[in-house]
Amino acid sequence: MPNETNHTDTTVLRETADAAIRLYENLDRRHVAVQAGYRELCARFDMPLPDEGVEPVEVLRDLIRDSEGGLVGSGGSRFFGWVIGGSLPSAIAADWLVSTLEQNAAIYQCSPAAAVLEEVAGAWLKDVLGLPASSSFAMVTGCQMAHFTALAAARQRLMADRGIDVGRDGLYGAPRIRVFAGAHRHESLIRALRYLGLGSDALEHVALDGDGRLDAASLERAMDQDADRPTVICLMAGDLNTGAADPFEAVCRLARERKAWVHVDGAFGLWMNASPQHRASLRGVELADSWATDGHKWLQLPFDNGFAFVRDHEAHRAAMSMSAGYFIAADGGGRDPMNWNPEWSRRARGIVAYAALRSLGREGIASIVREACRLADRLVSGLGRLPGVEVLSAARMNQGLVRFLDEGGDHDARTDAVTEAIRAEGTAWFGATTWNGIRAMRISVCNFRTTDADVDQTLEAVARVLERD
Ligand SMILES: *Cc1c(COP(=O)(O)O)cnc(C)c1O
To answer: pTM for the complete prediction?
Structure first.
């Protein structure tokens, strides 16, 4: 039978929008943990690719029905695992629009509106995050690629200072770049070093102080050995486990004297600068050379939104720019995103950032940060008041750590078991981590939908699990 499907019919768009809105509205009432295992999901989805197409409406209906139970409730208000964040309706709407507009935000002439919206959103982001207005920026898929982009600029500059054009010559014969970071650095930093040909062995760990902040005196001693080596220092605006921020002012001073490059991993923590009452915790962060952060965590954008900012825009452009015979020059000074990005064809993700930033305003963003910090504090201290719970790290920023004490002394096993039992109970979701060699349950509050009632409901659920087990 010939395929009768009308692929230009837009019914599937309307139906799916309605279904997606219903799912979104029910996020906070769903079981937060996964219900369906791998085998079950394969049984639902895995089939031979059909010869004849299936009606789009049917495909989407099946998709929505069959993914039930295989989804994690990470968009909901009682999801406290990793650092994930929710999505604002304004950002989701803009994201839908981006898909339907099908603009290629590679060069200005491919979508002038997308290029201008991205340029404006980039300027707003620097403003909100307290970064130098003259810095260049890139909108990428996430913090991973923001590290890659910013460190490509660092590599460009450090080599140019030594008379090497790394874009032309590569790293053959170049002096080895060393990268200082604390043991609290994120794995995505290492992968960026691998992408850039610097290698994971370029990393040299620097001691942390008792608060989990990079120890500036140890760094200074390490830098002064082999002082001529090209050097990158990677600082954390927000330790993954404790929310501690590194001593930016002291490190940036050391780095400037020695012509080293300071990069900041501010995936979530850089957003502390958006709240006037929290800004002090990042004092001096604006003195760094580059910054990487996410829009899909604390700014509440859907995934596929990371941002890199670079003080030395010449090095940034030199690392990323390109030209081809079929490019058309931007008119009137427009910005070609491609010159700042590792991608070629790319999603017009600047439109999503623009919509969210404008709909929240400065105060809206500040209040998301403020509320998450306040609720993290309530949640961690509330957990600490339950019997058999020890607070390992009181809430700092939006992060905290607790563990569950075992009468027999095996606190690690009990902590893992209780964390798992809480997830299975279905009200709230927490992850486990190893911190200073011991197992802990990690608390991260990163969703604008989380309220005091969610904290209360979570504390009641944890109390029930503790009584039962
Ligand atoms: C999430 C995270 C990253 C990685 O960001 P992606 O957006 O997942 O690429 C890097 N560093 C820190 C501190 C993070 O929290």
So the answer is: 0.97
